[in-house]
Amino acid sequence: MKIVLGLSIVLAIAPVAQAADVEAGKAKVATVCAACHGAAGVSVSDAIPNLAAQRPGYIEAQLKALKDGTRKNAIMNAIAAQLSAEDMANVAAYFAAQTGAATGAKSALLPNVVKTSVTFPEGYKDTFTKYHTINFPATKQVRYYYANKAAVTSAKAGKPLPEDSVLFAEVYAAKLDAENKPVMGGDGFYVAEKLILYTAMARGAGWGRDIPEMLRNGDWNYAVFTTDKQHRPGVNQAECLACHKPLDKTSYTFTLKQLADAK
Ligand code: HEC
Ligand code: HEC
User: Fold this and answer.
1) What's the pTM value of the predicted model, to 2 decimals?
2) Mutational pocket test of ligand 1: of 62, 76, 214, the residue with most ligand atoms within 8 Å of the beta carbon
3) Domain 2-108 belongs to what topology?
4) If the chain, 263 residues long, is cut into consecutive pieces of 10 residues, what is the mean pLDDT of each piece?
5) Any residues with Cβ below 6 Å from ligand 1, and which?
6) Among the CATH numbers 3.50.70.20, 2.40.330.10, 3.20.20.70, 3.30.70.270, which is that of 124-260?
7) Are 99 and 40 in contact (CB under 8 A)?
């Protein structure tokens, strides 16, 4: 009796065998996954795993866990959420069929995803509204958030952020005390010591055109600027797009509420 019951449960939860379509998997990888994992499963950076020659069952299991949230990673949760069981089987079969990478090999970033139309917002200190500040204990940084008038006006009116919106953040290293802990200012935020970089997101007509749908944030583009206001080399915009993608209800921004409450 016990044995029969156990067997029937195993059969009931056993996955239905999918005949994987390697060509469909290849096409999906070329447009989306390649931005980070490389077109042949050799990734673009040390922070992103190679998938070439990985076991297909493992790839599928990870994608399922990333989709249902039992495995947590903001970028991959957003991507896996958009994959069907069929997509998962297809990309898994494709990656499994690729040759494993040589040690240290890296794929190039995808030009259509790296390309950004965001330019440095000269004069932002005079024309933008400073609407929010956040401490980052893990990195000992403090960030100041700014938005241009078009963005502030729409946020206050409860409307989606319009074309020509610019959101911009200054990223500072906090001043550290003798114990290497950030010094707290009277306002409850770390005392800023040294500007490290700027991050930005902005919207313009047609700017999302060349970005694949699974990554596209409408017509928003992203950028990172160095302290001398130049585009920081090697920024993979796919990471920005993937992480902000689930926020389509709030114009792809995390801080829309703070923006609407800006003084
Ligand atoms: C924007 C970059 C990015 C894109 C695009 C992307 N990934 Fe990932 N992927 C990552 C990162 C980063 C990780 C590591 C996650 C972690 O640390 O848990 C990862 C992890 C994975 C893993 C787990 C690997 C392991 O060794 O456990 C799988 C499987 C995977 N991705 C599949 C895909 C597939 C399939 C696509 C395309 C549909 C895709 N990814 C697109 C960045 C990306
Ligand atoms: C791992 C997820 C993640 C990635 C990757 C990411 N962001 Fe964000 N971003 C956030 C979160 C969360 C916030 C909310 C405030 C904060 O934590 O800074 C944010 C806020 C922002 C803001 C302020 C407006 C807003 O949405 O609230 C800008 C500008 C921004 N990010 C730009 C970028 C750029 C440029 C990149 C790529 C280089 C990027 N982000 C990559 C998670 C991410």
Assistant:
1) 0.93
2) 76
3) Cytochrome Bc1 Complex; Chain D, domain 2 (1.10.760)
4) 48 60 97 98 97 97 98 98 98 97 94 97 97 98 98 97 97 97 96 98 97 98 98 97 97 97 90
5) 28, 32-33, 35-37, 47-49, 51, 59, 62-63, 73, 75-76, 79, 83, 91, 238-239, 242
6) 3.50.70.20
7) yes
